[in-house]
Design goal:
Radius of gyration: 24 Å
Number of helices: 9
Shape: flat
Distance between the termini: 53 Å
Number of strands: 3
Length: 221
């Protein structure tokens, strides 16, 4: 049971990342539209992190134009259903809604991780969105009582480099978590499965042969 629970967790973690990555890298969707979708997603997740039992945050009206705009991306709708636990149903007025069942207790660690991931992707997209970049620049320069100037190419490059580095660190962190979980699974299987055999290494699998020594191949002389 523990083995399948861990395996299920790994697959769930992989699927969550894949669903979000699908939209982020979809060239058929504008950066502006993707940015708006992830901004709303991070807001939804932020509210659930802060108030996981609050009824108003556990329900999304599908008649809301912003919710419609976000959930028309199938991958985000699946993400809300698979990761958070939203289900399509109707409220007392007969309106179509997405709702987290009252009996479902949200996992605090999972929710925080989901929020952090959505926030990171939103920030990456926002840096590429001309409208938001211009708006952010205006707010920043206004608050400092200076003229509103666009980011220089050097500033843009530095910002993108910082965001790329942050994304790579997050990717590496997720990879370490998957590796650690896989190691735990392998250890559990070795201890409980009497028919367990070590898997063939990637190098051996590619060559089609087990690794041999010089003596195995050419003999003693």
């Amino acid at each position: 049971t523990e083995y399948y629970s861990i395996l299920s967790f790994i697959m769930s973690m992989y699927n969550r990342h894949t669903l979000l990555s699908t939209l982020e890298h979809d060239v058929n969707v504008s950066v502006t539209e993707k940015t708006a979708a992830f901004k709303l997603l991070q807001t939804i997740l932020k509210n659930l992190v802060a108030s996981p039992t609050e009824a108003k945050f556990r329900q999304l009206r599908l008649s809301n134009p912003k919710i419609q705009s976000m959930t028309r991306h199938t991958c985000l709708l699946q993400y809300l259903q698979m990761t958070i636990g939203f289900q399509t149903t109707q409220n007392a007025e007969g309106q179509a809604i997405l709702q987290i069942p009252d009996a479902l207790v949200l996992d605090a660690t999972l929710m925080q991780e989901a929020y952090s991931t959505a926030q990171t992707i939103y920030q990456r997209l926002a840096a590429q969105c001309p409208t938001l970049t211009k708006s952010s620049s205006s707010v920043s320069t206004t608050s400092s009582n200076t003229s509103s100037l666009p980011l220089s190419e050097k500033q843009k490059a530095r910002l993108l480099a910082e965001q790329k580095e942050a994304a790579e660190k997050e990717e590496a962190r997720q990879a370490r978590k998957r590796t650690a979980a896989q190691i735990k699974i392998d250890k559990h299987v070795r201890q409980t499965d009497e028919n367990w055999k070590p898997s063939v290494s990637a190098a051996a699998a590619k060559a089609g042969d087990a690794m041999t020594t010089f003596r195995d191949k050419f003999g003693e002389n």
